Every structure is written in structure tokens, then in C-alpha cells.
Amino acid sequence: MSTETHAALWPRGEKKVEVAPLAPRLEGLEGKTVAFLWDYLFRGDEIFPILESELAAAHPGMRFVDYTTFGSTHGEDEGQIITDLPRTLAEHNVDAVVSGMGC
């Protein structure tokens, strides 16, 4: 039996951001404005119209801001898109965001 020891490193990096509390849930979706964000990688162009239709049917008066308003959240412009996101969401009076899809 070997008595050798080896140094080991924890695989996760050092925490750089403190955990923040979550935003409060909306009391309901009626009359709210929902933005769709997409990374342009997997079927958002198919899925978001279905989601919008179903949500609109279930929650009268709901409004939507299409993903094309924001641009791709993945790619060469993603840094600027994410930097501009708070301003863009405020300009469109967005109450909630659905972000997708990934691959």
C-alpha cells in the first residue's frame, strides 16, 4: 500500500458574485408585457409563436416583445445586447422575460 499523498484542487472557481435575492413573482400575467430572448441556436422561431399563442389565450391582454427586437443573445454582438438589455426592456415596459433555447 502506497503512503504517497497528492495535492488536489477544487474544480470550481472562486466565487466572484454574491447571491442576490430573486425578483418577486408577478401576481398574474393578465395585461403584462413579456419579452422573448433567443440565442438563435435551436427552434425559437418555431417555439416562441406557439408559446405566445398559448399564453395570450390563457391570459387576456398580455402583450409580447419579439426576440427580433433584441437580437441574438449568443454570438459576436451578445456582449452589447446584454449590456443594453435593461434599457431595452425598460423602453418596451417589459414585466417578464422568457429566455431560450440553447441546444
Say how many strands there are.
Answer: 3
Strand order of the largest sheet: 2-1-3
Tell me the structural class: alpha/beta
What is the terminal separation in angstroms?
Answer: 47 Å
Helix content: 25-40%
The string of secondary-structure elements, in order, is EHEHE
> What does the main sheet amount to?
3 strands, parallel
Tally the helices: 2
Q: Globular, elongated, flat, extended or rod-shaped: what is the shape?
A: elongated
Average pLDDT, rounded to a whole number, is: 90
The value of Rg in angstroms is 20 Å
Strand content is 5-15%
Poorly predicted runs of 5 or more residues: none
Task: Please give a structural write-up.
With 103 residues, the protein is of the alpha/beta class. It has a domain at 41-66. It contains 2 helices and 3 strands. The chain has a 3-stranded parallel sheet, with helices on one face. Helix 1 links the parallel strand 1 (33-38) and strand 2. The longest helix is centred in the middle third of the chain and has 15 residues, at 44-58. The chain is elongated and about 70 Å long. The termini are far apart.
